[in-house]
Amino acid sequence: MARMSAVQGATPATAGEVLALIRNGSAVTRSAIAAVTGLSRTAVSARLAVLMESGLVVEGEEAPSGGGRPPATLQFNSAVGVVFAVAIGRSRTQLAVCDLAGRIQAQDSRDHAPGLAPGARMTGIVERLRSLLDEAGRGVADVRAIGISIPGTVDHDAGASLDSPLLPGWDGVPLAPFFAEFADAPVFLDNDANALAASETGFLLATYDDLLLVKVSTGLGVGIVVRGELVRGAWGAAGELGHLKSAAAAGRTCRCGEVGCLEAVAGGWALVQELSARGREVEHVRVLVALAREGDAEARALIRESGRRVGEVLAQAVNLLNPAAVVLGGDMAAAYDTFVAGFREGLYANAASVATRRLQVLQSTHGEEAGIVGCTSMAVESLLEPARLDRMLARPLARA
């Protein structure tokens, strides 16, 4: 999710770096690229020839000119391929086929029983992606990358889940091999909160370089963005909000096996258990949220109290990191007014005033589609990262 920026004097700029300039609008004519990079006209033409041969760049409308023949603008060709977005949750999977600008071409969302083994679930995902690819009118050769999000900690070296209580039996199972016979494309895996943070690339991240994206759903997690860069930590475990200790959870056993975790009193699964214990038929946090939005007093009280407890614990992260914004996403954020009322109460009562003086508390931009938007953004930005792209251009992409 690294932000691409032009650096004056970054000579010699590679084809991948030139594409980054075109994509972010820093330089969209040959002369502008030469001015920003310091490359000669011949060198600029050589880089563009590679990008145009790959189909990644096309010439568009003529740019305004102060005299003489107006220069043609250069455009990123987002139709040159597609990416798969695969947002895997405990009991729901959201899938999409998107172009390289993130526009959804076809999508699907299905609920299923929790606890499915990775083999059964991933096989079903691949089959559904085949159907979506047909629906989008694209072929396997058009697939450039696959972005996957899963709950819990991710082992980035292995491309696998790392001891997540939400995905029993998935620990250490690499996910990329499930796609190997289907699509010759790189797989990019991250956890669900980080994917939600990636969904804000070009939206809230265009305004706030430092933010915390809090996913409040069945579980609780945080995507941490500092100076526009996603922070994963040394072993990928940064942002495990749900398993920080909370005084309100003293003596309560969490599903991770520990005692006193925030999730045990504020996670969606704990709220569902609480309402079920009161004799209400609730199977998932989304049902609880729907009840709250319909005005159910018990559901609203539980969600507001969850917000307050999350705010109390997140206050420490706000004190440590001093973000410009806290963004709320996930299933419970659909009952935003109810959740944020409690969240603000807990946050502002426990965070230092200097850290909250100008802090913005916001709702995620994409709602229920944030997961697939984030997986798409993660896949595209990783695929087109200049160094990776330069290596990939030795094997050019076919034109769409």
From TrEMBL:
<dbReference type="InterPro" id="IPR000835">
    <property type="entry name" value="HTH_MarR-typ"/>
</dbReference>
<comment type="similarity">
    <text>Belongs to the ROK (NagC/XylR) family.</text>
</comment>
<dbReference type="InterPro" id="IPR043129">
    <property type="entry name" value="ATPase_NBD"/>
</dbReference>
<dbReference type="InterPro" id="IPR036388">
    <property type="entry name" value="WH-like_DNA-bd_sf"/>
</dbReference>
<dbReference type="InterPro" id="IPR036390">
    <property type="entry name" value="WH_DNA-bd_sf"/>
</dbReference>
<dbReference type="Pfam" id="PF12802">
    <property type="entry name" value="MarR_2"/>
</dbReference>
<feature type="domain" description="HTH marR-type">
    <location>
        <begin position="19"/>
        <end position="61"/>
    </location>
</feature>
<protein>
    <submittedName>
        <fullName>ROK family transcriptional regulator</fullName>
    </submittedName>
</protein>
<dbReference type="Pfam" id="PF00480">
    <property type="entry name" value="ROK"/>
</dbReference>
<dbReference type="InterPro" id="IPR049874">
    <property type="entry name" value="ROK_cs"/>
</dbReference>
<dbReference type="InterPro" id="IPR000600">
    <property type="entry name" value="ROK"/>
</dbReference>
<dbReference type="InterPro" id="IPR019885">
    <property type="entry name" value="Tscrpt_reg_HTH_AsnC-type_CS"/>
</dbReference>
